[in-house]
Amino acid sequence: MKKAFIFDLDGVIVDTAKYHFLAWQKLAHSLGISFSEEQNEQLKGVSRVQSLEKILEWGNKTISEERFSRLMSEKNEEYLSYIAKMDAGEILPDVPRILEHLILENQAIALGSASKNARAILEKVQLYDKFNTIVDGTNVSKAKPDPEVFLLGAKALGISPENCIVFEDSVAGIKAANIANMISIGIGNQEVLHEADYVFNDFTEIKEEFINQLVATKIV
Ligand code: GL1
Ligand code: MG
């Protein structure tokens, strides 16, 4: 069987979720809006525009369009300063092992991220060439939990959604995978990601046998 394994980027392949958090928190505080880890959980997997919209909503603030775009650029600059020195050392544990196993088993590999910085980050950590297709924030018009990002990946690979497996660290991303009719695998906290078909703390808990079972499962 040929299946497609679709990976989210931030918080799944690389530990960049923390940098997004720090950058959004700084922005929120500059507007006098408090920003908790819990709120951050709701922003994970959410596009840049929608993240800022949510923060403003939480703070009950309305701002001009011009200020909105200025704030988005500032957030991105702050984020880019964190990832400037990023290298392969920031790949999360055992991600390379799983990617290599999938390549060995001749499975399709896709990226499905809301980030507009996704391609640059994959280049930085030298994983770009492992992906058969990349769908990121520059390709989609609807943000997770809309399934667009994953459906585009499946389409590009010519594999039906039922034969796709999604790795996600965000609630929005798990919802998107479920809506797309794909198998959803949460990477992170079981309580937060309880809507996923499977949850692991990280890739070190995922055995090759588990991947092989997913590959062998026939969907009728
Ligand atoms: C956008 C948001 C981030 C994060 C990613 C998805 O990234 O700004 O906070 O939610 O989408 O993981 P970016 O700004 O790089 O397009
Ligand atoms: Mg993520």
Automatic annotation (TrEMBL):
<comment type="similarity">
    <text>Belongs to the HAD-like hydrolase superfamily. CbbY/CbbZ/Gph/YieH family.</text>
</comment>
<feature type="binding site">
    <location>
        <position position="24"/>
    </location>
    <ligand>
        <name>substrate</name>
    </ligand>
</feature>
<dbReference type="GO" id="GO:0000287">
    <property type="term" value="F:magnesium ion binding"/>
</dbReference>
<dbReference type="InterPro" id="IPR023198">
    <property type="entry name" value="PGP-like_dom2"/>
</dbReference>
<feature type="binding site">
    <location>
        <position position="75"/>
    </location>
    <ligand>
        <name>substrate</name>
    </ligand>
</feature>
<feature type="binding site">
    <location>
        <position position="168"/>
    </location>
    <ligand>
        <name>Mg(2+)</name>
    </ligand>
</feature>
<dbReference type="Pfam" id="PF00702">
    <property type="entry name" value="Hydrolase"/>
</dbReference>
<feature type="active site" description="Proton donor/acceptor">
    <location>
        <position position="10"/>
    </location>
</feature>
<keyword id="KW-0460">Magnesium</keyword>
<feature type="binding site">
    <location>
        <begin position="43"/>
        <end position="48"/>
    </location>
    <ligand>
        <name>substrate</name>
    </ligand>
</feature>
<feature type="active site" description="Nucleophile">
    <location>
        <position position="8"/>
    </location>
</feature>
<dbReference type="GO" id="GO:0005975">
    <property type="term" value="P:carbohydrate metabolic process"/>
</dbReference>
<dbReference type="InterPro" id="IPR006439">
    <property type="entry name" value="HAD-SF_hydro_IA"/>
</dbReference>
<keyword id="KW-0479">Metal-binding</keyword>
<dbReference type="GO" id="GO:0050308">
    <property type="term" value="F:sugar-phosphatase activity"/>
</dbReference>
<feature type="binding site">
    <location>
        <position position="10"/>
    </location>
    <ligand>
        <name>Mg(2+)</name>
    </ligand>
</feature>
<dbReference type="InterPro" id="IPR010972">
    <property type="entry name" value="Beta-PGM"/>
</dbReference>
<dbReference type="InterPro" id="IPR036412">
    <property type="entry name" value="HAD-like_sf"/>
</dbReference>
<feature type="binding site">
    <location>
        <position position="169"/>
    </location>
    <ligand>
        <name>Mg(2+)</name>
    </ligand>
</feature>
<dbReference type="InterPro" id="IPR010976">
    <property type="entry name" value="B-phosphoglucomutase_hydrolase"/>
</dbReference>
<feature type="binding site">
    <location>
        <position position="144"/>
    </location>
    <ligand>
        <name>substrate</name>
    </ligand>
</feature>
<dbReference type="InterPro" id="IPR023214">
    <property type="entry name" value="HAD_sf"/>
</dbReference>
<feature type="binding site">
    <location>
        <position position="51"/>
    </location>
    <ligand>
        <name>substrate</name>
    </ligand>
</feature>
<feature type="site" description="Important for catalytic activity and assists the phosphoryl transfer reaction to Asp8 by balancing charge and orienting the reacting groups">
    <location>
        <position position="144"/>
    </location>
</feature>
<feature type="binding site">
    <location>
        <begin position="113"/>
        <end position="117"/>
    </location>
    <ligand>
        <name>substrate</name>
    </ligand>
</feature>
<feature type="site" description="Important for catalytic activity and assists the phosphoryl transfer reaction to Asp8 by balancing charge and orienting the reacting groups">
    <location>
        <position position="113"/>
    </location>
</feature>
<protein>
    <submittedName>
        <fullName>Beta-phosphoglucomutase</fullName>
    </submittedName>
</protein>
<dbReference type="GO" id="GO:0008801">
    <property type="term" value="F:beta-phosphoglucomutase activity"/>
</dbReference>
<feature type="binding site">
    <location>
        <position position="8"/>
    </location>
    <ligand>
        <name>Mg(2+)</name>
    </ligand>
</feature>
<feature type="binding site">
    <location>
        <begin position="8"/>
        <end position="10"/>
    </location>
    <ligand>
        <name>substrate</name>
    </ligand>
</feature>
<dbReference type="InterPro" id="IPR051806">
    <property type="entry name" value="HAD-like_SPP"/>
</dbReference>
